[in-house]
Amino acid sequence: MTFSHAHLLGIEPLAPADITAILDLADEYVALNRRDVKHADALKGLTQINMFFENSTRTQASFELAGKRLGADVMNMAMQASSIKKGETLIDTAMTLNAMHPDLLVVRHPHSGAVDLLAQKVRCAVLNAGDGRHEHPTQALLDALTIRRAKGRLHRLNIAICGDIAHSRVARSNLLLLGKMENRVRLIGPPTLMPAQMQDFGVEVYDDMREGLKDVDVVMMLRLQKERMDGGFIPSEREYYHRYGLDGEKLAYAKEDAIVMHPGPMNRGVEIDGEIADDINRSVIQDQVEMGVAVRMAAMDLLARNLRARRAEAVEGA
């Protein structure tokens, strides 16, 4: 299994073989997580610190569960009450972390590039749990695993990403990953929530849901990122749902066996109709949550192998 990276900061640096390596190992961890005894020892003896500068439910719980199931000592740092709030710089935080000798550092930060800066300053493996509008690599990987298991492949599919593209790091990471795996990607949303020159990314752009959803295999809905909006991007939530919310009438334009996805948390009646979200024949939203734990287990396992290998080489060379 080939995966030579020291960190997981984004999808951009990954080759298709790297993506496949993570997904193949994650498949094994899906099986482990469905057993009565869900523990392994890939991270035994290692310390994992979760630093979330933004609120999170699914991602933080998923990383915590993943680390504990692999045998790591897991610590969650309450960053809302941290020294950062008292004026400490990110660099000083990195120095403090180095003194604690962690092995794996999971970071979510509101500013793009902050996780990369930390990775340059700490002596451990860093995983990006979302940085600003930049990337959310493990979300794209868990989405990819969900698609691959539902469709039997992760290439040459027609995939629509719908909604608030402009503010979404999930959309960016998925665009990168799905493009690397040779899929045809469509972006659907109002012009106010669509970044300029998106056609340059090799995608098709639509502002009409029915036209954009025609004959797609996968419908990926996005949350309206109201916390990142500083103006009137939509007339009203009611109008947004009427034009861009996924309901049965709009979904009928997709293929009969098209699957429906959403990274969560969902705003029912805004981005997606509740009946569609709960339809076990179409919705794979709960599968995404399950795949999230397995993907994060796989990513930390692979990074820990590389960390141990580098440390062993350093000892031999000393």
UniProtKB/TrEMBL annotation:
Binding site for carbamoyl phosphate: R58, T59, R108, H136, Q139, G264, P265
Occurrences of domain Aspartate/ornithine carbamoyltransferase Asp/Orn-binding (ranges): 157-302
Family matches, as InterPro entries: Asp/Orn_carbamoyltranf_P-bd, Asp/Orn_carbamoylTrfase, Asp/Orn_carbamoylTrfase_sf, Asp_carbamoyltransf, Asp_carbamoyltransf_Asp/Orn-bd
Keywords from the UniProt entry: Pyrimidine biosynthesis, Transferase
Binding residues annotated for L-aspartate, in chain numbering: K86, R169, R223
Transferase is among the record's keywords: yes
GO molecular function: amino acid binding; aspartate carbamoyltransferase activity
Record-linked Gene3D superfamilies: Aspartate/ornithine carbamoyltransferase
Catalyzed chemical reaction(s): carbamoyl phosphate + L-aspartate = N-carbamoyl-L-aspartate + phosphate + H(+)
Function: Catalyzes the condensation of carbamoyl phosphate and aspartate to form carbamoyl aspartate and inorganic phosphate, the committed step in the de novo pyrimidine nucleotide biosynthesis pathway. Reversibly catalyzes the transfer of the carbamoyl group from carbamoyl phosphate (CP) to the N(epsilon) atom of ornithine (ORN) to produce L-citrulline.
Family annotation (PANTHER family): ASPARTATE CARBAMOYLTRANSFERASE, ORNITHINE CARBAMOYLTRANSFERASE, MITOCHONDRIAL
NCBIfam families registered for this protein in UniProt: asp_carb_tr, PRK00856.1
Annotated protein name in UniProt: Aspartate carbamoyltransferase
Organism: Roseovarius marisflavi
Gene: pyrB
